[in-house]
Amino acid sequence: MINTVAIQGVKGSFHDIVSKEFFENSVDIIECMTFDRVVNALINKECDAAIMALENSIAGSIIPNYALIDDYELHIVGEHYLDIQHNLMALPNQSIEDIKEVYSHPMALLQCKDFFKNYPHIKLVEDKDTAEVAERIQKQGLKQVGAIASVLAAEIFKLDILAHSIQTIKHNETRFAIVKRTNSEVSESEINKASIKFEADHKRGSLATILNVMSDCNLNLTKIQSLPIIKTPWKYAFFVDVTFEAYADFEKAKSLIEIMSPSFKLLGTYKNAKS
């Protein structure tokens, strides 16, 4: 059973919301300001699992998190999709016209930039975490300062929401990975998604051949992300997510790709959150 989970951010953050929605039992939270700290908490056995955002439907992949999972030999054991609704909030009895600065995570600012075109008097400032800014405003009594965060953060830190759902694209989803030190504990009958990493020979058609193997084995490619191989300039590794109906199909494809690829790693097998 998972009792303690490391998250990026504080209570009221989107990672905190995922911890409440994903785990059936109530879990204790270790608040971390960076994903490096999240990973350190996991590998140092301060927690049983960690939650890491991997991609957003607007802003794309969070590539450094793929690298962290790979570098520290971590295992993806589950995933969760969260509808991200960004809200502008501040201390009570203020209007948007009173706000001079808004602090938030760079990803949140990027997703809300069109909203602030209507308020050129507001300075946007990048910060470490959405909910942590809300907490700081409340603790320090910061007037004329706003935060972009969740409704939960506004409730926890007793802030007024000045504008709801200010993200540019209203359907705004982030995919989060549940990560552990060991591989999946999901039963084989429930596994219908896998995350893998492989390299392709640096010659014509090598990547296409591997992708054809996936297709021939009835795997559905849902994600492919290239990442430079630091020690080998101009060569890339590929992080791939696949879904399947039969685990035997994945096992067959895996055995073939292991032969074809100079380097292959299974990052995790788990239940598809979209199925």
- What's the CATH topology name of the largest domain? D-Maltodextrin-Binding Protein, domain 2
Form type: elongated
Counted up, domains total 3
Count of individual helical segments: 9
Distance between the termini: 24 Å
**Arithmetic mean pLDDT:** 94
Helix content: 25-40%
Largest sheet properties: 6 strands, mixed
Instruction: Give the CATH H-level superfamily of the largest domain.
Output: Periplasmic binding protein-like II
Ranges where pLDDT stays below 50 over 5 or more residues in a row are none
For the secondary structure, the number of strands is 15
Helix- and strand-based class? alpha/beta
Mind telling me the C-alpha Rg? Answer: 21 Å
SSE ordering: EHEHEEHEEEHHEHEHEEEHEEHE
Q: Tell me what portion of residues adopts beta-strand conformation.
A: 25-35%
CATH class of the largest domain: Alpha Beta
Q: What is the name of the CATH architecture of the largest domain?
A: 3-Layer(aba) Sandwich
GO cellular component, one term: cytoplasm
Organism: Hyunsoonleella pacifica
EC number: 4.2.1.51
Protein name: prephenate dehydratase
Structure description:
This protein has 275 residues and is of the alpha/beta class. It folds into 3 domains: 4-83 and 172-180, D-Maltodextrin-Binding Protein, domain 2 (3-Layer(aba) Sandwich); 87-163, 3-Layer(aba) Sandwich (D-Maltodextrin-Binding Protein, domain 2), CATH 3.40.190; 190-270, ACT domain (Alpha-Beta Plaits), CATH 3.30.70.260. The protein is built from 9 helices and 15 strands. It has helices spanning 14-22, 35-43, 63-71, 106-111, 113-116, 130-140, 151-156, 206-216, 247-260; strands at 4-8, 28-32, 49-56, 60-61, 75-83, 87-90, 101-104, 123-126, 145-149, 160-163, 173-180, 193-199, 220-228, 236-243, 264-270. Strands 1, 2, 3, 4, 5 and 11 form a 6-stranded mixed β-sheet that branches. Helix 1 (14-22) links the parallel strand 1 and strand 2. It is elongated and about 65 Å long. 38% of the residues are buried.
